[in-house]
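Example record for the data management plan.
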Amino acid sequence: RQRFPGKRVEVTWPAWPEPAIKGDDTSVVRRIACLGSWSHAKDAGLITKALHTVLKEEDNIEVCLTANNQLHRKFHKYKSLTVVPAMNWAEYARWLREQRFDIGLYPLRDNRFNQARSVNKILEYAQTGAITLLSDVWRSHELSDLEGAFIPVANDTEAWVLALRKAMSEHDERRTMLEELQRKTAIRNVSARSRMLWAQILELDATPN
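Corresponding structural encoding:
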C-alpha cells in the first residue's frame, strides 16, 4: 500500500482446508515438528538448545525436521528423528495432509523478511492437528485475527523450554486452541474469498463446480 498509494491491495490467507482435529488420543505428545525450507535455516537455530533439552527429558517423542533447513544435522544422534526430504509444493501439501503432529515449532528472527511472512505456517501445522509455538517477535497484523490460536514465545532458550513443557502437559488446552483456530478460519471463509477474488481478476464465474 505504501508503494502503490491509491491502488486496490487485496491480502488473502492461504486457502487450506479447515484445521484438523484428530479423533485419536491427544493426552500424550508423540510427534513434534519443525518444518521449513532453506529460508528458515537461520531461524531454526534459535530453538536448537531448547529442543535438545526437552528431548533429553522426553526421549519417547518423535521429532520431524525438514532436510532443507539443516536443523536435522544437530539431532542426527537422536533415536526418534524423522527427516523430511525436499519435495515440490504439490508433494509437500499431499504429504502434510497425511501427517499427525501434536506441536509445530515456528522460530523466527526479528528482521524485515520475517515480518512480511503470512500466517501460512500456522495453517500448515493445523492440517496435521498441531498447535503452533512461534517467536513473539513476529508482529504481523494477520496474527491479531488468530489470537488465542497459537502460543507466542520469546526468543531465548529458557522461554522455548518452558513453552514446550507447558504445551506438552496441557492437552486440553491444545485441543481448545485447535477448535479456536477452526472457528476463526471458518469465519474468514478463505477458499470462497480467494475464488471470488480470482474470478473478478480473470472475469470468470466464481460458482464452485
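Summary line stored alongside the record: Residues 171-188 form the longest helix (18 residues).
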